[in-house]
Design a protein that fits this description.
By secondary structure, the protein is an alpha+beta fold. The protein has 3 domains: about 100 residues, Rossmann fold (3-Layer(aba) Sandwich); about 40 residues, no CATH class; about 90 residues. Strand 1, helix 5 and strand 2 form a beta-alpha-beta unit. The radius of gyration is 21 Å and the shape is elongated.
Length: about 240
């Protein structure tokens, strides 16, 4: 959408390669079924009216029901709202479930987007970005409902460097949004099948540095088969 509309590109909060893991964590809320992500090219629906958009979902994609937030807007120039979505879905024989916004209980940040007319204190990607920019990882975890996971990509030995118990990588290797530059204790490197290895993370203006105590955990870093490094943040910045 940003590319089509000419918006300034933004690094995603969740790395594309990590989206399926997040979706899998929703299974208990979806009848123990893991949701499957399917994306529609924005350019193919950009100019559709609300009516034509819902019709496309029904006739072309065979959608049987939709779930949307109460502040959802859709259709060309955001002409449709959640109430209209429910009405149009009913006309097409589709179910529509409008969900109330999840409100942010953190009062300290309650007015940080006061200039935004849509801001009513609800949890949003904007709030997560603000919390990451502040380096408040406890707050980020509260908003996401899980720890923030940073993903770093490298090709073979390119990108990673360091000693036996520490590695460093340039910020150009990051696949999603990192927190504010600083030092973070109580972090974890994710090894293999979700094994969590405690680590300390230092982020500066050009690179991210990961320091670990456990012997041998760095043996696979920088090898041909090791292409992704996952880091989870727990506590606030030191």
């Amino acid at each position: 959408m940003a590319e089509v509309l000419g918006w300034e590109p933004r690094v995603p909060i969740v790395a594309k390669s990590d989206r399926q893991r997040v979706l899998s964590s929703w299974a208990s809320y979806c009848g123990n079924v893991v949701p499957i992500e399917f994306q529609i090219e924005f350019s193919t629906v950009r100019y559709l009216s609300p009516e034509h958009f819902v019709e496309k979902l029904s006739k072309e994609f065979g959608v049987r029901g939709v779930v949307a937030g109460e502040n959802y807007r859709f259709g060309y120039k955001a002409a449709g709202n959640a109430l209209e979505l429910a009405r149009l879905c009913q006309e097409c024989g589709m179910g529509a479930y409008i969900i109330k916004s999840v409100m942010d209980k953190n009062q300290e940040f309650s007015h940080m987007d006061a200039s935004d007319l849509k801001e009513r204190g609800q949890v949003s990607s904007t709030r997560v970005r603000h919390a990451l920019a502040a380096g408040d990882m406890n707050y980020v975890s509260e908003l996401l409902g899980r720890r923030h996971r940073l993903v770093i990509k490298t090709q073979g030995q390119e990108g990673f460097g360091g000693q036996k118990h520490s590695i460093s990588a340039p910020k150009s290797c990051l696949l999603n949004l990192a927190p504010k530059d600083g030092t973070y204790d109580n972090c974890f490197v994710v090894i293999g099948q979700e094994k969590l290895v405690p680590c300390r993370v230092v982020i500066d203006s050009t690179a991210i540095h990961v320091q670990m105590d456990e012997t041998g955990v760095c043996t696979d870093f920088g090898t041909r088969d090791f292409q992704l490094l996952h880091i989870e943040f727990d506590d606030s910045r030191v």
